[in-house]
């Protein structure tokens, strides 16, 4: 997390943010820009930053929604209405392309409005770049470097949140643990490059087998987990069968003789994290004992 420390040390002065290009700027305008800069400096969360900025930009242009598009994804302002016509502005800082700021409005963007928004954009650039750097560092800390899936630390955090939510709403969810059958022989016989190819292929299969509301994780080695946002145990069974069927159809998996064993369970309102995990792990153990390439519910 060294980069986060660096970010905290480098905060440009207000003069670097403010559009002082014109000597004719009124004091009231400068004060407005200064307030925007001060407000933008209060957050490194990209969605929050876009929402803060949108509150100020709404003073010069009537729009229903706003999004920031970048290599990390799409970050909308809160309560955005994206049904109107988009107008896109490219954001650059010192030759670096930060992304695109998209306004959604039923009104066209006039030349005078464009000039005013350009001054607001100048105030946004440095806070936006800092937020982008910070978000990239956080992403590295929570993602598996090989597969791009969430890692074990992220699993622990999300599992805790889901258990708390399940208790409040009295709505179960599914936990699925998976590993690869015969994976060790792939590394031993064909080498770790082939093993990495198998892991990436399996991660892709898992991602394609679940819905957007579900979360996929890699713990390390050939150990994976899925949190399934559905109260029905049958949904876990359907997802497990879909995964195993896709694995058997994969040319890469067939080449190396790799299949998958799966254990799954539903979270109960009284469950603690370790109890829930142990139950799903028991299902995985049962699947291994049953001959592998199968799924068992604990």
TrEMBL record:
Matching SUPFAM superfamilies: Nucleotide cyclase
UniProt-listed Enzyme Commission number(s): 2.7.7.65
Cofactor: Mg(2+)
Alphabetized Pfam families for the sequence: GGDEF
Record-level GO cellular component terms: plasma membrane
GO biological process, one term: negative regulation of bacterial-type flagellum-dependent cell motility
CDD domains (alphabetical): GGDEF
GO terms, molecular function: diguanylate cyclase activity
Domain GGDEF: 171-298
Protein's name in the database: diguanylate cyclase
Species this chain originates from: Pseudoalteromonas xiamenensis
């Amino acid at each position: 997390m060294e980069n986060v420390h660096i970010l905290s040390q480098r905060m440009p002065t207000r003069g670097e943010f403010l559009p002082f290009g014109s000597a004719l700027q009124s004091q009231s305008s400068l004060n407005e820009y200064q307030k925007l800069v001060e407000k933008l400096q209060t957050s490194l969360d990209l969605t929050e930053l876009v929402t803060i900025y949108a509150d100020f930009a709404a003073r010069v242009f009537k729009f229903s929604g706003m999004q920031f598009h970048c290599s990390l994804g799409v970050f909308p302002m809160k309560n955005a209405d994206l049904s109107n016509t988009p107008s896109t502005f490219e954001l650059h800082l010192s030759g670096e392309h930060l992304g695109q700021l998209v306004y959604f409005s039923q009104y066209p963007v006039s030349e005078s409005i464009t000039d005013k928004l350009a001054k607001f954009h100048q105030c946004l650039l440095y806070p936006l770049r800092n937020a982008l750097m910070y978000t990239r560092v956080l992403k590295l800390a929570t993602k598996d470097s090989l597969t791009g899936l969430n890692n074990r630390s992220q699993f622990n955090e999300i599992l805790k949140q889901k258990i708390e939510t399940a208790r409040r709403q009295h709505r179960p969810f599914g936990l699925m643990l998976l590993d690869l059958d015969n994976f060790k022989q792939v590394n031993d016989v064909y080498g770790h490059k082939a093993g990495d190819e198998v892991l990436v292929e399996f991660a892709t299969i898992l991602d394609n087998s679940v819905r957007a509301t579900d979360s996929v994780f890699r713990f390390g080695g050939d150990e994976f987990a899925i949190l399934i946002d559905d109260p029905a145990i049958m949904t876990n069974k359907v997802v497990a069968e879909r995964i195993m069927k896709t694995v058997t159809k994969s040319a890469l998996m067939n080449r190396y003789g790799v299949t998958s064993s799966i254990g799954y369970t539903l979270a109960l309102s009284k469950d603690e994290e370790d109890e829930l995990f142990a139950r799903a792990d028991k299902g995985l153990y049962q699947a291994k004992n049953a001959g592998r390439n199968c799924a068992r519910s604990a």
